[in-house]
Amino acid sequence: MPSRVDEIMDRRSLRRKLTFWRVMTLLVIAAAIAGVAQYAVTDTRGDHIARVRVEGTITEDEKLLEMLDQIRKDDRVKGVILTVDSPGGTTVGGEAIFNSVRKLTESKPVVAQVGTLAASAGYMIASAADHIVARHTSIVGSIGVIVQVPNVAGLMEKIGVGVTEIKSSPLKAEPSPFSPATEEARQMVQNMVRDSYEWFMDLVASRRPLTKEEVRRLSDGSIFTGRQALERKLVDALGGVEEAKAHLVEKGVAEELEIVEWEPKQSDGPWLLSETAAFWMGGMRGFDINAALKEIGAERLFLDGLLSLWQPENGLAGD
């Protein structure tokens, strides 16, 4: 005959199982509702102006690229407002999005609307649009390329750690964070930076009413307010979303069309392992994981390759 203790243990085990399956059922229902809602919104859109946000550090964002291609193919989208608010990022990421926006302009009018910041690769992407609108106090520019390699040789020496390198050639894996860069390594990287810099300037000159020499004079890393950028022909007008829409109307887009926010679809992987899950699980504890990572700038730690990124010592702010 089972004892009283066994009965209590069985009941507790049953409660745990019921609680687990209740939570799982709620999660599945929530995911299903979100999926149905997203499908319904997408499926019932009529003719509209699509608004796409390019924010934060630029990388080769496959979801964003897929969405831009989807917008290009959607006949209900009559014009696009590309809202850019970015300090830049990888040159490869900027190039990929730039090319995607250029392809989009072949079938629909596209206007870039600069928020707080469109610098480096952020400005590269904005220049892909047919027209650029910036706020009076937006930050625009920082045309250039940078490579940064940390040197931890001194730190490793202090903690008594050494690295043995066996290389096939002197420039293999150079510059290295474990030793000071040689002059040959510096020259190799400098040549690569210079080539990408010339490519960036050619790109801007092809998109703006400026000669290559005029672009070169503006490409010393300087940043400008929206007003200064307008004087230097880096932007076309001052204003915000309303002014951006007004330009689309001038290009033949119906004025009565609504602006509809487009967002990249969530990960196709298992829901519990997706970014959405991180947001939900963090939110249930009152903590947004993704927002926290962006706040501390952790996403920049994972950038690799040539960078086109504005990195001020201290952020600019208005009191």
From TrEMBL:
This is Signal peptide peptidase SppA. InterPro entries: ClpP/crotonase-like_dom_sf, Pept_S49_SppA, Peptidase_S49, S49_SppA_C. The keyword Transmembrane applies. Keywords: Hydrolase, Membrane, Protease, Serine protease, Transmembrane, Transmembrane helix. Belongs to the peptidase S49 family. It comes from the Bacteria. Residues 104-249 form the Peptidase S49 domain. The lineage of its organism: Bacteria, Pseudomonadati, Pseudomonadota, Alphaproteobacteria, Hyphomicrobiales. The chain crosses the membrane at residues 20-41. Pfam families: Peptidase_S49. The gene is sppA. Coiled coil: none annotated.
